[in-house]
Amino acid sequence: MHTQDTAELLLPRSREANERLHALIPGGAHTYAKGDDQYPEDLAPVISHGRGAHVWDVDGNRYIEYGSGLRSVSLGHAHPRVTEAVRREIDRGGNFVRPSYLEVEAAERFLATVPTAEMVKFAKNGSDATTAAVRLARAATGRPRVAICADHPFFSVDDWFIGTTPMSAGIPAETNDLTVTFPYGDLAATEELLTRHQGEIACLILEPATHSEPPPGYLAGLRELADRHGCVLVFDEMITGFRWSEAGAQGLYGVVPDLSTFGKALGNGFAVSALAGRRELMERGGLRHSGERVFLLSTTHGAETHSLAAAMAVQTVYAEEGVTARLHALGERLAAGVRDAAAGMGVGEHVVVRGRASNLVFATLDGNGQPSQEYRTLFLRRLLAGGVLAPSFVVSSALSDADIDHTVDAVAQACAVYRKALDDGDPTPWLGGRPVKPVFRRLV
């Protein structure tokens, strides 16, 4: 059953498991965004299992879960059509000394789903794919610099991106100097950057959309700028892939990049990512050209049969069951409910839902309208007490209307406490310990 009161939510087994995790694994998790510093003190559940839109922690508490698998599990946990496809391939062997026939089928299925691409290569995580795109762009243009969108939070674990964050320890300054930034939605600023570094920028890489729609003509304008300045246009579709449309944001907005990268929803939690793009560029990483070879992607586990089977099943489910439309409908219902609940408790200007309906996030603002980690902690704490695990409000298609209604009720209870804290001008009594912290910070 869902726990209803903060005083009842005790997580002794999760606390013990977190201590063991930190003793053995740097950061206590394999992704910083899953760290217990992202949750209120002593309220970071360690998961036992999940099914559909629900997860259970090792203490036996059940939660409605949002942002599942860092947005990767868009169909819900243990989706039967995906798990059956995976199970079928596991019995046939997972990795061979030569390509399996499944690789042909998986590539054909992907390119039929994303028809704006002409070739595809699979890998295991998003960073592999985005870094391969950058390397390919540098090889094709002979230019050293990479231009990344400054308004998008993450592109890769590799040096060319991490060097631009507050966690740049261990990355040479010379590497950092080769990455420059441009603002989202501002074509004039991007053109100024390209002109200032004339002939030096290999690629523009960005998420084609995030928490707001692209300004009219923006993506087409970037396409024209890239063509005019001779650089490669790369769309990072890790999040927008499938959640915006089955063919990603490029399919929805009708602007074709030179290269694009997919992951997350592609495998519904199984490890698979993809680099896709124009044949002329992609073939440079192959064997059927006369130019200098590019070490594009070469991964021992990149073509594991069960992960490719998962990706094929995901694409089938999206197409046959209209998943993208369902994600948007669920998100719209949730956003409307949260906004009504927040307004009803007098905090409509402080608990703010943003983003496309299929990719909702929330902001927690203090009395001055500024983002607040303290108020986020209060909000997360009350949601957890109400049986809702929600670092974001990113939906999965496994959510039911009852799940949404329960979430809105939990939000209303959280907003009642939020109002009290605003009235007192101090959220501290409701934090239960230290506040949550941003992922990217220089010191622990």
Written account of the structure:
The model is unreliable at 1-7 (pLDDT under 50). The protein has 16 helices and 13 strands. A hairpin with a 6-residue loop joins strand 11 (351-354) and strand 12 (361-364). The longest helix is centred in the last third of the chain and has 24 residues, at 401-424. Helices cover 40% and strands 13% of the residues. It is globular, with a radius of gyration of 22 Å. It has a seven-stranded mixed β-sheet, with helices on both faces. It has a four-stranded mixed β-sheet with strand order 1-2-3-13. 47% of the residues are buried. Helix 4 (101-113) packs parallel to helix 13, helix 8 runs parallel beside helix 9 and helix 15 (373-385) packs across helix 16 (401-424). It has 444 residues and is an alpha/beta fold. The two termini are 35 Å apart.
Q: What's this entry about, in short?
A:
The chain is built from 16 helices and 13 strands. It has 444 residues and is α/β, with parallel strands linked by helices. A hairpin with a 2-residue loop joins strand 1 (47-51) and strand 2.
Low-confidence stretches: 1-7
- Give me the strand/helix succession: HEEEHHHEHEHHEHEHEHHEEHHHEEHEH
Query: How many β-strands, per DSSP?
Result: 13
The profile of the biggest β sheet is: 7 strands, mixed
From the alpha carbons, calculate the radius of gyration and give it in angstroms. 22 Å
The average pLDDT is 96
State the helicity in percent bands: 25-40%
Task: Give the CA-based shape.
Answer: globular
- SS summary, helix count: 16
Percentage of residues in strands: 5-15%
Distance between the termini: 35 Å
Strand order of the largest sheet: 4-10-9-8-7-5-6
